[in-house]
Amino acid sequence: MPSSVALRWWSVGYVVLVVVHLGALLADAAVLADVTQCLLMPTLAGALWAATRWPRGHLVTWAFGGLVASFLGDFTPRLLDGDAAFLAMVGCFLLAQVSYVVAFAPRVRRSVVRTAPAWLVVYAGVLVGLVALCGPHAGTLLVPVAVYGGVLTAMAVLATGLGPLGAAGGAVFLVSDALIALGRFVPGWDLPGQDVWVMLTYTVGQALLVASVASDNRARRATRPAASAAQTQTQAPKRDNVVAFVTARRGLEV
């Protein structure tokens, strides 16, 4: 199947799954919601595979790692209960955020860390605010939640190095996990349609990150042939050994 056709099918499949999943949440169809959530990240990984080409390199490889860990974060908690399920989810998504941090780190010079460091104050403020709101009620989960929040914020910051799509994806993903933390730890937090908002921002954030990774892969593949052609043009032509030998022999005969 041509890659463009495959990408279209994977993308349509992802959108359909997101719509069905959100509808299932609204309708309290728990089984359908569980099944569709577990299919989201594998489908998005298929779209990333179809949207990129060899050599996929560091960025795409680690982005796949982030999607795999995210799938585990969606699936594993369903096998557990209570705090164990929550910790399993946090652990898996921590691995996902670490994978994204490793993926995006080489683009740090293009991120707000170098281009607009004032934005770091905003990201730091969001992190401090979340810890301040959730910390007093997190109990023994305070440390893992704080560590996760720090890595999540680092991911969002580094994602800005992939351009507007990456910046938006990292920010929306940050919002999704912030909603989870607020719903879990802040007494009286009552956002109508909490689960729907969490999953909407989660699926949109992940899709934007994947789109930014695919865009970066396309841009780098487009510049590679041009760079190779320029390098070839600058190289001095090499004389064929046979031609050189014949030319020298003729010079001796004269």
From TrEMBL:
InterPro entries: TMEM86B-like. GO terms for cellular component: membrane. GO terms for molecular function: hydrolase activity. It is a multi-pass membrane protein. The chain crosses the membrane at residues 12-33, 54-72, 84-104, 116-133, 139-158, 165-184, 196-214. Keywords: Membrane, Transmembrane, Transmembrane helix. The keyword Membrane applies. It is found in: Membrane. Belongs to the TMEM86 family. This is Lysoplasmalogenase. It comes from Cellulomonas gelida.
